[in-house]
Design a protein that fits this description.
The protein is 84% helix and 0% strand. The protein is mostly helical and 108 residues long.
């Protein structure tokens, strides 16, 4: 499924960034972002195999988690945990995931 592939690609990019975060950010905001990413991946995988009538609830939860993830990544950038180039890379990928999720929600 394209959204799952896009999420996996985004997470792998994030994972490469995580090991280079300053120690303070790595164990606070970095850990929060990492947990949100794994939650989102699990929700997307579950939504893929959920019955159509139950799928909307999963997708709405996925959308909320994605918004939280974007917020915490922006906060990490504002706190100088990641530079502008890395922020641009990861936020661009997450915007693409958001558009895919919106289309998926509209199709239900």
């Amino acid at each position: 499924m394209p959204i799952l592939s896009a999420l996996k690609e985004s997470y792998l990019l994030w994972h490469n960034f995580l090991i280079h975060l300053p120690r303070l950010s790595r164990y606070t905001l970095g850990a929060k972002v990492d947990n949100l990413f794994t939650d989102i991946l699990a929700l997307a995988l579950a939504a893929q195999y959920t019955k159509r009538e139950e799928k909307r609830a999963f997708l709405e939860m996925l959308s909320r988690k994605l918004d939280q993830l974007k917020f915490f990544i922006t906060l990490l950038w504002e706190a100088k945990g990641i530079d502008a180039a890395k922020y641009g890379q990861i936020s661009g990928k997450l915007d693409t995931v958001g558009r895919m999720l919106g289309k998926w929600l509209q199709s239900i």
